[in-house]
Specification:
Blueprint (H helix, E strand, L loop, with lengths): L1 H11 L15 H11 L4 H8 L4 H6 L8 H11 L3 H7 L37 H6 L16 E2 L4 E2 L45 H16 L1 E4 L2 E4 H15 L13 H12 L6 H18 L4 H9 L4 H5 L7 H10 L12 H13 L6 H8 L7 H11 L1
Bound molecules: zinc ion (ZN) (2 copies).
Length: about 400
């Protein structure tokens, strides 16, 4: 036992023997698995030997979201890469652009969990990208919530090996195999079933490209103004929640509205296939994109058609960016539907105010000043009618 322990300690001081070059947008787990295969080891054994004794523990957690400076430093040292090059492989490098988190342990909403019983089976990927790669590898963007399809190959990402229906598990890959082979049945994942997107889904691919470009640059251009990408991605979560109104959603100009409603109907019935969930996330992403196009018209129309108030857009969300609040204040009036008591004096003063400015006194104009809805707020309507005659 003692001899074995000494032996391990000795290897822990050793540099990696073969260091594959990190590929553009590659996930840390993908690069580490490629390196462990080069060393003819399983990921956990490789990590235990070279990096940390508890390699088993590291390889079973979400290593791509893990923030561990010691580990990054060690990987950099042993691979003769810079810490920045290592950090670039981690999803943490998107912090401040895609998501914000204060020492959070688990991925925030903008990052897809490795597995979610309701929505996807495991790490998602594009089989065609794997097939085209000289060296097959897994991309960071395949973990982003807005990235449900591959814009290059116009297919949905897939969440499993369609040969044995199992998830992708790097930690289980046999050391004699390739990264792109299923760890359960050893089938080549680049040849697995492909889910093509018909031409009516084109708009969704445009949306993914828009989000991808914004993230890459760190900002979006909305209504001729630069907006930090983080703000847009934070509002993304809030907006998808409001948009997912199923059959009640009114969004007539959205190009995939029929597809969305049909899909919601399908999802009502129990369906073990998660493809429909992935497709739904794909459509919801394009809806958020739609709201930011022709800004602020589509946004305002959405609020009006679905009778959403200012409060609906902010209620229940802990972290709302200043930018999101600002655009809401600008485009969705803070209206009081029925809640606040409105006095006769308030209404009289509003009328006087308009008269002083020589503005025509109408029910709507007065309500705007009082700060309530001009037809829905019953008390206001009553006072106004009484004063009018
Ligand atoms: Zn692809
Ligand atoms: Zn398989």
């Amino acid at each position: 036992m003692a001899a074995q322990k000494r032996n391990k300690d000795w290897i822990q001081d050793y540099f990696f023997l073969i260091v594959p070059k990190p590929l553009s947008d590659e996930l840390l787990s993908s690069w580490l698995t490629r390196m462990s295969i080069e060393h003819r080891r399983k990921l956990s054994t490789f990590l235990s030997l070279f990096v940390k004794r508890e390699g088993n523990r590291i390889s079973s957690i979400d290593i791509d979201f893990l923030y561990n400076e010691k580990l990054f430093n060690k990987l950099a040292l042993k691979s003769n890469l810079t810490v920045k090059e290592i950090l670039d492989l981690s999803l943490r490098s998107e912090e401040g652009y895609l998501f914000a988190c204060n020492d959070c342990l688990y991925p925030p909403k903008q990052i897809r969990k490795l597995k979610d019983k309701r929505t996807h089976n495991g790490l998602m990927f594009c089989p065609k990208c794997l097939a085209e790669d000289n060296i097959p590898y897994f991309r960071k963007q395949w973990r982003y919530l807005f990235y449900n399809a591959c814009p290059k190959h116009k297919i949905l990402l897939t969440d499993r090996c369609w040969c044995c229906y199992n998830e992708i598990k790097f930690s289980k890959i046999n050391h004699m195999n390739k990264l792109s082979y299923c760890s359960y049945c050893e089938n080549d994942l680049s040849t697995t079933t492909i889910i093509h997107l018909q031409s009516n889904y084109k708009y969704g691919l445009k949306a993914i490209k828009w989000f991808e470009k914004g993230l890459h640059k760190g900002y979006f251009i909305i209504n001729h103004k630069k907006v930090a990408s983080l703000f847009v991605f934070e509002s993304f979560t809030q907006l998808t929640f409001l948009l997912d109104r199923k059959e009640n959603l009114v969004l007539d100009k959205f190009p995939m509205i029929t597809e969305y409603k049909n899909l919601c109907k399908k999802l009502e019935h129990y369906n073990s296939k998660k493809i429909n969930s992935i497709k739904k996330d794909f459509i919801l992403t394009s809806m958020v994109y739609f709201l930011f196009q022709n800004f602020p018209n589509n946004f305002i129309q959405f609020a009006q058609d679905n009778k959403l108030t200012h409060r609906d857009f902010t209620h229940g969300f802990k972290e709302t960016s200043y930018w999101y609040k600002k655009i809401l204040n600008e485009i969705i009036p803070i209206q009081n539907r029925t809640g606040r008591e409105i006095s006769e004096r308030e209404v009289i003063e509003a009328i006087k105010y308009l008269q002083n400015l020589n503005i025509q006194v109408t029910q709507e104009a007065v309500a705007n000043i009082v700060g309530c809805h001009y037809t829905i707020h019953k008390r206001f309507v009553k006072i106004y009618k009484k004063l009018e005659f």
